[in-house]
Amino acid sequence: MGFGELLFFGGLVALANVGGGLLLARPGTFQRSRHFLSYLVALGAGFMLAAIFIEIVPEVVVLWGKGSDPGHGVLGAMTLLLAGYLLIHFFEHTIAPHFHFGEETHPEAVVRTSAAYTAIGGLSIHTFFDGASVASAFVVDRKVGLLVFVAVLLHKVPEGFTAASIILASGRSARRALTATLIIGGATLAGVLTVALLQARVAEAVSYALPFSAGVTLYVAASDLIPEVNHIEHKNPFVSLVVFAGVALFYLLHLLIEG
């Protein structure tokens, strides 16, 4: 895929971050936004889990299993996947312990401006690797790229909503909240550009970027989004079924793209 196309798809997922912030910043839309996001979080969780296990991990195994010792290669790939997962766990629970994805952002826990900005920094790490995931997948295969693009896009709006709510909870203005969404959107685009530039200079870069970013995506789906769904279902039991709808949506798009 060309540089311009990577930039286009990266720009779309970055704009979704800003869209999430606008949902919160616009007067009179907060409650409707929360209701909408609860379903979007569940849909994104199911879609992302399906994309990781059905599309990305098999692609990584193929990439890393072509050498003279396929078993050793796959072990290296899974190590990178685990490293990506643990990196985000480290950032969330040490550098930005107040940060959460999704509809339930616990704003009462983020009252100091310094804590809010630290949380935005942690969220920017997430979004950087979101962009890296999209670009890596497109470089490997256009079909894989489209599926990962949809998976990432589904949780970008909740990310933007989360960033805006953190800044507003710290007492900052709606303008500052939107600026925060622009920052995390910019981090997404930076992830896309980093992989695109590395791929142009180092042909094997994507082989390392794809499993690592897959670990990041797995953390977002399994350790951020699914717990949020479990929390939301106490108020709305139907939302758990939307996770399965996300999986079904993945298979539907998979069939359409294959066709």
Key features?
mainly alpha; 259 residues; globular
Largest sheet: none
The end-to-end span amounts to 20 Å
Number of helices: 8
SSE pattern: HHHHHHHH
Shape: globular
How many discrete domains? 1
Helix content: over 70%
Number of strands: 0
Structural class: mainly alpha
What do these coordinates show?
The chain is mainly alpha-helical and 259 residues long. It has one domain (3-254). It has helices spanning 3-25, 30-64, 70-95, 113-140, 142-169, 174-201, 205-232, 239-258.
Question: What's the structural blueprint in terms of helices and strands?
Answer:
Layout (H helix, E strand, L loop, with lengths): L2 H23 L4 H35 L5 H26 L17 H28 L1 H28 L4 H28 L3 H28 L6 H20 L1
Helix pairs in contact: 1-4, 1-5, 1-6, 2-3, 2-5, 2-7, 2-8, 3-4, 3-7, 4-5, 4-6, 4-7, 5-6, 5-8
Concise structural overview:
This protein has eight helices and no strands. The protein has helices at residues 3-25, 30-64, 70-95, 113-140, 142-169, 174-201, 205-232, 239-258.
